[in-house]
Amino acid sequence: MKKNPIIPYILIMAFGLGLIFFMSIDGADKKAEIAKGGKEAKTEQTAGKGEAAGAADPEAIAKQKCISCHGDNLKGNVGPNLHGTGLSDAQVKEILTKGKGGMPPGLVSGADLDAMAKYISELK
User: Fold this and answer.
1) CA 18 from chain center: how many Å?
2) Within a 13 Å sphere around the CA of 53, how many CA atoms are in the beta-carbon half?
């Protein structure tokens, strides 16, 4: 008699469902912590390391919004190298606000715009 080929799939499915069930039991005890964002939950006021409350952190903004196109070190990937561009703060602000080439407009705005423009224009 031949072995039934569906048995391994049923066993894998049962194991997966059991794993999900037992992992959810662990999470049920931590509902409040998960809702707050975990042990390392940060608010805008406490996000900075020794910075003034509400101060922009251009490196964190770059890691969040820029590295996907400009690479981990902002030296280019899909987007161009941001080191030594020779652009002034005003030029960088314009590019961040209006976009240029493949870069979409409005990735950085508000209070973060000035800090980010200064950070990018000072990259060597």
Assistant:
1) 32
2) 3
Q: What is the per-residue pLDDT across 55-69, written as a single tens digit (0 to 9) for each?
A: 678 888 888 888 888
Angle formed at CA 101 by CA 68 and CA 91, multiple of 5 degrees: 90
Kindly write down the DSSP assignment for every residue of the chain, as one continuous string.
-PPPTTHHHHHHHHHHHHHHHHHHHHHHTTHHHHHHTSTT---TTTSSSSPPTT---HHHHHHHHTHHHH-TTSS-SSSPP-TT----HHHHHHHHHH-BTTBPTTSS-THHHHHHHHHHHT--
Nearest CA to 94 out of 70, 120, 69, 74 is that of 120
Specify the higher pLDDT residue, 81 or 34. 81
